[in-house]
Design goal:
- By secondary structure, this protein is an all-beta fold.
- The radius of gyration is 13 Å and the shape is globular.
């Protein structure tokens, strides 16, 4: 069965960095587009970044709010997806979720940006 497991969240100060990881299993990882979503307290879940499948060129796309600060990547051999987050802001505080169309969601990892 499809499983997505996030890790790497935590507490950091404004301007700090974190790297999130998503471990995928139960499907041929390289065939699928993968995404990161986030949900802040009291807000709707929003799309943060997407990386397409290998066949589609592993192209990336970002929400305007994170463009230039976050980088999505994938390691198909390891069946892993990553989100490198730099210059973090308090408004980046949220639970971050790994997503694959199905839909399939991980349980999320909490990122808190606070001084």
């Amino acid at each position: 069965q499809v499983q997505l497991v996030e890790s790497g969240g935590g507490l950091t100060q404004p301007g700090g960095s974190l790297r999130l990881s998503c471990a995928a299993s139960g499907f041929v990882f390289s065939l699928y587009d993968m995404s990161w979503y986030r949900q802040a307290p009291g807000k709707q879940r929003e799309l943060v970044a997407t990386i397409t499948s290998v066949a589609s060129g592993s192209t990336t796309d970002y929400a305007d709010s994170v463009k230039g600060r976050f980088t999505i990547s994938r390691d198909n051999a390891k069946k892993m997806m990553y989100l490198e987050m730099n210059s973090l802001r308090p408004e980046d505080t949220a639970v971050y979720y790994c997503y694959r169309a199905g839909p399939y969601w991980g349980k999320g990892t909490l990122v808190t940006v606070s001084s």
